[in-house]
Specification:
With 261 residues, this protein is an alpha+beta fold. 39% of the residues lie in helices and 26% in strands.
């Protein structure tokens, strides 16, 4: 009877407390993870908006050149140098500037690659895409092009006397990466940009290389989201947001253990 009484006391008093403890622990852990997901999603959205704004400003900088007092459809070396000086003043991410006629020939250039003067861009993907679309600008994926060096192209077009002229500039991926780092706030936060094929456009060298394949590629049809993945045996939260200005996705990682902390 003593044994039965002890067992009865354990069942009546201790077991319910143990079950309640387990229940509240599960609820707390679930709520904590939801809070971590919401926090990372908010960080990702904030970074996405900042990057979109950065790209919008660079596009506006190029369009401004069409309306400057120095603009001419037959730009001189001095005028192109002035354009580059203006662009470099607003952002050191700009590498050079070029002006193309309606046939895709670069008739004006200023920058560190003078041999690009007179180059024919009519068959380049960014040029054909810009000419075929209604939107007056285009931001390319990273590529090497004639200079055989990774870069992005931002190109704008303006119709003058029924002909489409193009003002283009390239952005330095390293400068873009440094910009991305300055906006990646939070402990353990790491950010990168990939294109629709999952190729890195901007990435920390410790994670991958430019044009390398990302291990995580979000669904194109899903504008944003947060997933839990495993990396090197650790659980990691990764948030994504597709940009509005170009077909890139921003990826933001944070180890789950740091997020919980």
């Amino acid at each position: 009877m003593r044994i039965q009484l002890i067992i009865g006391l354990i069942v009546i008093f201790i077991l319910p407390h143990a079950l309640f403890t387990l229940y509240f622990h599960i609820q707390f852990t679930t709520s904590l993870k939801k809070a971590d997901i919401l926090n990372l999603a908010a960080i990702s959205e904030s970074q996405r908006n900042t990057i979109d704004l950065f790209l919008q400003e660079r596009v506006v900088n190029l369009f401004t050149l069409f309306h400057s007092r120095e603009f001419s459809i037959h730009p001189s070396v001095r005028e192109m140098a002035y354009y580059l000086q203006y662009l470099r003043q607003v952002s050191d991410a700009f590498v050079d500037v070029g002006f193309l006629d309606s046939k895709g020939i670069q008739i004006g250039y200023a920058g560190p690659f003078p041999y690009l003067q007179g180059k024919d861009y009519s068959s380049e993907k960014w040029f054909t895409t810009l000419m075929d679309q209604e939107k007056g600008y285009f931001i390319s994926d990273i590529y090497k092009g004639f200079r055989n060096k990774p870069h992005f192209t931002i190109a704008t077009k303006q119709i003058i006397d029924d002909q489409a002229f193009t003002m283009r500039s390239t952005l330095d991926p390293d400068k873009f990466y440094m910009f991305l780092r300055t906006i990646s706030h939070g402990k353990g936060i790491e950010s990168a940009l990939i294109n629709e094929n999952g190729l890195y456009q901007v990435v920390d060298p410790d994670r991958g290389e430019l044009s390398g394949v990302s291990e995580f590629v979000p669904n194109i049809g899903q504008t944003s989201g947060v997933d839990e993945i495993e990396e090197a045996g650790d659980q990691v939260l990764v948030a994504h947001h597709w940009l509005k200005e170009t077909s890139w996705a921003l990826l933001v990682w944070q180890p789950l253990i740091i997020a919980h902390a």
